[in-house]
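User: Can you predict the 3D structure for this chain?
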Amino acid sequence: MPTPRALALAALVGYAAGLVPSASLAARAASGGQVDLRTAGSGNPGGANAAAVLGRRWGYAVMAADITKGAVACRAGRRLAGGPGQHVAAVAAVLGHCYPATHRFRGGKGVATSVGQCLMTLPAYVPIDLGVAAAVAAGPWRQRAFPATMAASATWVAACVLWWRRQLPNAWGGPVTVGHPIAAAASSAIITTRFLAERRP
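Assistant: Here is the predicted structure, written as structure tokens:
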């Protein structure tokens, strides 16, 4: 088992990865600093709003960057504190993306960052997770993003339980442990909280 210090470091590194302002950097590059996605469009600094305000290419670029944040956090956490470390770092990355201390705790919804988490911990579920991320970014589906994400989150947690209980093959994700469904549930809870916050009048 990793030491508490190693786990704390994994959490810190994961949170720092989540703080990378992908959408803000894309807006600056696309508009020369004229557009702020925190005030333009829906006001959400994520791939969906980037696609709506800056164009689909920029939206997908932001999604790819956010997926990378989750994946990098997992990899770093695994190196620092093994299997538990990857889960701690991944959840921290989602937290950092959704509630960044550098932007008054107002961030994106964390869907794409959780795709990166899934990519590294449960690769078999990635095609479904990518489908949800694409649906969130697509204009006609934006009003359905919340129920679609909630359904996918529940399926993700259920898939983690299935892979853990049956010890199914997991490609580069390695053996599935009880940490997988716990981490998936934790990230899903953070994402749900962000969606609900956006839906409040």
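The mean pLDDT is 89. The CA atoms of residues 21 and 97 lie 8 Å apart.
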